[in-house]
């Protein structure tokens, strides 16, 4: 463990409930919060509609987990504010950085299978050509453990430039998508499959098929093309529809840090697996969820949002009563959030097609108690 310091568009919202098959979850079970309160599904649904109208949120997909099981799932609003096409139970959203925790789970499966060592330098598997001259020697120290705990010193995005490490790997905290992509390339190399569609096939075999997440993918496919909702610009609310031909997901690249497409009900299956400790050995779950990076009291993340550190994949917020494991996702016109608390067998998953995730989570916290 190390100790570190860190360096509208306004419109009339046509909020639509989705098909009865999905709303069925909202009608079946009372929601029990982490704080001893019981909330009727209809109360949560009405509250969410008001939040969406207040903040001009086009659409969302949400799931709540109690006692390690899905008790509430809903999809509300519209895919596109101009066409008014409704969001429904088949709608697919960008997960953005919610990609990282589920990729971490995948990487730890590779550790268990002997394809990856958490503490062996990645350089020994696959040298990275993208480091600046002054960082090349230190870059040889980077390990998978450092990647998953954001201790590599690599930048979040390199934008095609040579990367200079912010610090000697293992001695600080620097949130990095580039590091996750490096690890994805290593896993692909170890299997002789690269880091495009074949890596996604391996991910499906090891993660989404066992967890019954059939439409969650890092690679653009026909289902995503048919069911993906429009994002909405976080500044002016303009609808955007990102497709491969516009420079995203080119050539089927598996972007471990950001390219996951999913929705709340499916992603909740991953959260339930985390709560029930399914798919990995108990000692691997212990390693994944323990604190690897500690934020001191002056750390901005601790001061601003209360996060106390980072495990292997998830940020953490520790209190004497519980540990909240969490992650946000921000592709600007899509935002998402996940959290779960093992001590309470509780979890929340949220996908939105706007830049208003924080407002939605804050509003939901008024109904269910603090969720962040």
From TrEMBL:
<dbReference type="InterPro" id="IPR012338">
    <property type="entry name" value="Beta-lactam/transpept-like"/>
</dbReference>
<protein>
    <submittedName>
        <fullName>Beta-lactamase</fullName>
    </submittedName>
</protein>
<dbReference type="InterPro" id="IPR001466">
    <property type="entry name" value="Beta-lactam-related"/>
</dbReference>
<feature type="domain" description="Beta-lactamase-related">
    <location>
        <begin position="48"/>
        <end position="356"/>
    </location>
</feature>
<dbReference type="Pfam" id="PF00144">
    <property type="entry name" value="Beta-lactamase"/>
</dbReference>
<dbReference type="InterPro" id="IPR050789">
    <property type="entry name" value="Diverse_Enzym_Activities"/>
</dbReference>
């Amino acid at each position: 463990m190390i100790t570190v310091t860190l360096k509208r568009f306004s419109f009339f919202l046509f909020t639509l409930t989705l098909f009865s098959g999905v709303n069925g979850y909202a009608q079946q079970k009372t929601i029990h919060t982490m704080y001893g309160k019981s909330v009727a599904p209809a109360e949560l649904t009405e509250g969410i509609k008001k939040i969406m109208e207040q903040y001009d949120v086009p659409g969302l997909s949400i799931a709540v987990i109690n006692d390690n099981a899905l008790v509430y799932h809903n999809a509300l609003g519209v895919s596109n504010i101009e066409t008014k096409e409704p969001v429904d139970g088949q709608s697919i959203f960008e997960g953005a950085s919610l990609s990282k925790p589920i990729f971490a789970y995948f990487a730890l499966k590779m550790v268990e299978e002997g394809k990856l060592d958490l503490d062996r330098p990645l350089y020994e598997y696959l040298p990275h050509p993208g480091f600046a001259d002054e960082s090349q020697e230190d870059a040889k120290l980077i390990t998978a453990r450092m990647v998953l705990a954001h201790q590599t010193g690599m930048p979040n995005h390199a934008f095609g430039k040579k990367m200079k490490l912010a610090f000697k790997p293992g001695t600080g905290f620097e949130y990095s998508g580039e590091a996750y992509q490096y690890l994805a390339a290593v896993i692909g190399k170890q299997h002789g499959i690269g880091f495009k569609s074949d890596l996604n096939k391996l991910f499906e075999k090891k993660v989404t098929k066992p967890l019954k997440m059939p439409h969650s993918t890092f690679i653009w496919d026909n289902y995503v093309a048919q069911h993906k909702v429009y994002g909405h610009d976080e500044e002016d609310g303009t609808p955007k529809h990102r497709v491969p031909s516009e420079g995203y997901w080119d050539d089927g690249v598996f972007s471990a840090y950001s390219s996951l497409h999913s929705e709340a009900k499916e992603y909740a299956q991953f959260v339930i697996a985390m709560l029930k400790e399914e798919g990995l050995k108990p000692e691997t779950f212990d390693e994944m969820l323990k604190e690897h990076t500690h934020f001191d009291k002056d750390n901005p993340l601790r001061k601003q949002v209360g996060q106390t550190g980072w495990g292997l994949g998830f940020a953490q917020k520790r209190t004497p009563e519980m540990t909240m494991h969490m992650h946000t996702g921000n592709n600007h016109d899509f935002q998402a959030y996940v959290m779960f608390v093992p001590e309470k067998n509780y979890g929340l998953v949220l996908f939105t097609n706007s830049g208003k995730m924080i407002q939605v989570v804050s509003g939901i916290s008024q109904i269910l108690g603090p969720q962040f």
